[in-house]
Amino acid sequence: MKAPFSTDAGRLEAFSDGVIAVIITIMVLDLRPPPGSDLGSLRAVVPTLAAYILSFIFVGIYWNNHHHLLRAARGIDGRAMWANLHFLFWLSLSPFTTAWLGANLGAAVPTAVYGFGLLMDAIAYTLLQNALLAVNGREGAFGQAIKTDRKGRLSLLIYVTAIGLAFAAPILSDALFITVAVIWFVPDPRLEPVIRAVDAAGETD
């Protein structure tokens, strides 16, 4: 029985999972216990914890959708592998942008830099989708499933808006970041029928 997706795609997914696990680990290492022992002392770590929770959700969203994307694809090539590394590069900066935002919640530049990181994550993920689309074809099930990416385009627009707002009203930028997380919280349903079809084809081969 053949695997439902190529061995290379499986290897790429396993490598990406490892990198994402390290990213989450580095982010949580920035969390420090409060200086005191009463509940009031927790106020000092609320900004850092809030930034961590938001970034954890974003990384989790990317991990979930990245899994669906590679499971739906039947093959990869060198361009897709480099696009995946490019995506992981920007995602690996999450611990830095998260730590800076958490230490300076409400500050313009850290908020803008955090938004820029999210914007580059989204652009890199879009480039990865396009690279996989070139391998798997636009007319097949995979291509038809991802040809319409309204949430992706909307997210890019929101990120650009949030970066601009960071210098006038950082709290509104934070609200926009949360809005994007809510939009993407449910895994991309476009790829689930494709995955089922790929799995079925693998079982019959």
Tell me about this structure:
This protein is mainly α and 205 residues long. It has one domain (7-204). Helices cover 75% and strands 0% of the residues. The protein contains 9 helices and no strands. α1 packs antiparallel against α2 (46-72) and α5 (108-136) packs antiparallel against α7 (150-165). The chain starts with 6 loop residues before the first helix and ends with a helix. Mean pLDDT is 87; it is low at 1-7.
How many domains is the backbone divided into?
A: 1
The tally of beta strands, per DSSP, is 0
Low-confidence stretches: 1-7
Largest sheet: none
Shape: elongated
Distinct helical segment count: 9
Helix and strand run: HHHHHHHHH
What keyword list fits this structure?
about 200 residues, mainly alpha, disordered N terminus, elongated
List the helices and strands and how they pair.
Layout (H helix, E strand, L loop, with lengths): L6 H23 L16 H27 L5 H15 L1 H10 L4 H29 L4 H6 L3 H16 L4 H15 L7 H13 L1
Helix pairs in contact: 1-2, 1-3, 1-4, 2-4, 2-8, 3-5, 4-5, 5-7, 5-8, 7-8
Can you summarize this structure?
With 205 residues, the chain is an all-alpha fold. Helices cover 75% and strands 0% of the residues. It has helices at residues 7-29, 46-72, 78-92, 94-103, 108-136, 141-146, 150-165, 170-184, 192-204.
